[in-house]
From TrEMBL:
Transmembrane segments: none annotated. InterPro entries: Cyt_P450, Cyt_P450_CS, Cyt_P450_E_grp-I, Cyt_P450_sf, Cytochrome_P450_monoxygenase. This is Cytochrome P450. Pathway: Secondary metabolite biosynthesis; terpenoid biosynthesis. Heme binds at C439. It comes from the Eukaryota. It is found in: Membrane. GO terms for molecular function: heme binding; iron ion binding; monooxygenase activity; oxidoreductase activity, acting on paired donors, with incorporation or reduction of molecular oxygen. It holds the Pfam family p450. PANTHER family: CYTOCHROME P450 (PTHR24305), CYTOCHROME P450 12A4, MITOCHONDRIAL-RELATED (PTHR24305:SF166). It comes from Mycena rosella (Pink bonnet). Belongs to the cytochrome P450 family. Its cofactor is heme.
Length: 497
């Protein structure tokens, strides 16, 4: 049956591999970003077969119904590559690697700290952090300013204030340093890296996971990082548990709220160690992701001065709620710009899942197999690795229009985008994934981007220097880089207010 299964996958059309060793991996994952994926989607359709390393068949899926099924049916789980990577980066009990009942319980508690109402309470904190960066942005500095460090420090600051209830400087210096080293070193992509990941994925999971105990510098750094995160997490949680036990007002941050929740309820579905175990994933998951999406919005606004001026006019007219807070949700162009940035530049352009049983993946549009058969569903065997093409889905002409390859916030204002067929948590996009592992911080990320973009466009005008370009590069995240592939986003900045 394995052979028949292979045949059925092999009947799905796709590009020829460029080598046995690396298949199509270099074409897909090395620059220029998205080039081959665009061509192959247009040539072969919303499901195409490509080759991973060592001749292994892979599926790239951008069909909306198929994606929804994979994310929501419970028949697929995180593939070993990400599962192992996440264990190394975030520790064994972080929410991205927990499964089933355990994961559901943890998410129930955690989601309560990220509801629309809860996130609204974080607005003043985020506004304070955003003002902090615009004070540090000094246009007289030099002709072109790399905006990455400033935006990153704003998003890291937002995460620590909102989640831990403290400034970055109040965390242990060792932990903060280890965190930025880990973020920098996990952002890489090369043919060697791809081979190692793929080879690791072939090992039994228990063995792959243990390669972290190899005596290399990188694995030592990862182990130290997880220990530091745990130490820091315990310090924060002890403090907040003490406050909660004494009935003191511990603050509005996520950790304080969760500690109060533990003290208030006798059913112990959440334990202090469950909070501690999320310290690393919170720090890392919430920072570069939001920062890069913001940089992409700035790049597109810099390319289109009229759009930037219209957005500035909307920001200057700041609508307010009856309580006097800025009503970011009532700013149509701001929100359209954010949605369009998430659509065109999903920080995680694709993710992987593995089938936990023999099953079928339904398709919204049938595809033609290599022998001319119409397939309305795809048969997969337990263990089949599938690539979820979030970036591909977000470029489907059938969903987003003929100009889907262009950055055009107007599509959201003219309601040319799908209104129904809810997929993903936000605006029918999959940039935040979907299903049980949907990004826990998506509402926070949206508010953070609303606040920071408003602050920056309010006070500064951005344009692109002639001598430098900013290119998206897939480095596990979709990172802004210069022509040499270094993380950098250089802008000419002028103060306007
Ligand atoms: C624009 C910003 C962001 C983007 C594009 C983004 C994207 C994603 C994606 C795609 C996933 C799922 C990965 C998969 O299914 O394979 C995810 C999960 C996650 N994100 Fe985000 N994220 C963002 C901001 C944040 C923020 C601000 C936080 C925290 C404060 C956060 C914390 C997490 C966590 C903890 C998970 C794991 C959830 C689980 O597995 O249950 N993210 N994110």
């Amino acid at each position: 049956s394995t052979i028949r299964q292979q045949r059925s996958i092999q009947r799905i059309p796709g590009p020829p591999p460029s080598s046995w060793l690396l298949g199509n991996m270099l074409q897909l994952f090395l620059p220029p970003y998205g080039y081959y994926d665009d061509i192959w989607r247009k040539t072969y359709g919303t499901v195409y077969r490509f080759q991973g390393c060592f001749g292994r068949d892979r599926l790239m899926i951008s069909d909306p119904l198929a994606l929804q099924h994979i994310l929501n049916s419970g028949e697929f789980e995180f593939a070993p590559i990400f599962d192992t990577l996440f264990r190394w980066l975030f520790g064994e009990r972080n929410m991205a690697v927990l499964k089933g009942e355990e994961h559901r319980n943890l998410r129930t508690a955690w989601n309560a700290a990220f509801t629309a109402g809860a996130v609204r309470q974080y607005q003043p904190i985020l506004e304070k952090v955003a003002q902090g960066i615009s004070e540090k942005l000094d246009p007289s500095d030099s002709p072109a300013i790399d905006i990455c460090p400033l935006i990153s420090s704003a998003t890291v600051g937002s995460t620590t204030e909102v989640v831990f209830g403290c400034a970055v400087d109040d965390l242990g210096a060792e932990f903060v340093e280890s965190n930025s080293n880990i973020m920098a070193s996990s952002a890489s992509q090369s043919s060697a890296q791809i081979l190692i990941d793929e080879f690791g994925g072939l090992l039994p999971s228990w063995l792959f996971r243990r390669t972290i105990y190899l005596p290399t510098k990188a694995s030592q750094a990862l182990r130290t990082h997880v220990e530091l995160a745990s130490r820091e997490g315990w310090r924060l949680v002890h403090e907040k548990m003490d406050a909660a036990k004494q009935g003191l007002d511990g603050g509005d941050d996520v950790y304080s709220m969760l500690c109060e929740y533990i003290c208030a309820f006798t059913n112990k579905s959440l334990r202090p160690e469950d909070i501690v175990a999320q310290t690393s994933v919170m720090m890392i998951g919430g920072s570069d992701t939001t920062a890069y999406t913001l940089v992409w919005a700035l790049v597109e606004l810099a390319k289109n001065p009229e759009l930037q001026d219209s957005l500035r006019a909307e920001i200057h007219g700041r609508p307010r709620t009856s309580r006097g807070d800025v009503a970011y949700d009532s700013m149509p162009l701001l929100n359209a710009t954010i949605k369009e940035s998430l659509r065109m530049y999903p920080v995680r352009p694709w993710t992987y899942r593995v089938a936990t049983k023999d099953t079928f993946i339904p398709l919204s549009q049938s595809i033609l197999s290599t022998n001319g058969e119409r397939l309305s569903q795809i048969q997969v065997k337990k263990g089949q690795l599938v690539t979820l093409g979030f970036a591909s889905y977000q470029k489907l002409e059938s969903r987003w229009g003929e100009d889907s390859g262009q950055f055009n916030p107007g599509r959201w204002l003219e309601s040319r985008v799908p209104q129904s067929a809810a997929i993903g948590p936000y605006a029918n996009l999959l940039a935040f994934s979907g299903g049980s592992h949907t990004c826990v911080g998506w509402r926070l990320a949206v508010l953070e981007m609303q606040v920071i973009l408003s602050e920056l466009i309010d006070k500064f005008a951005f344009s692109l220097p002639v001598e430098e370009s900013i290119e998206p590069r897939y480095m596990t995240n979709l990172m802004p880089t210069n022509a040499d592939g270094q993380k950098r986003a250089a802008f000419c900045v002028k103060r306007v207010l």
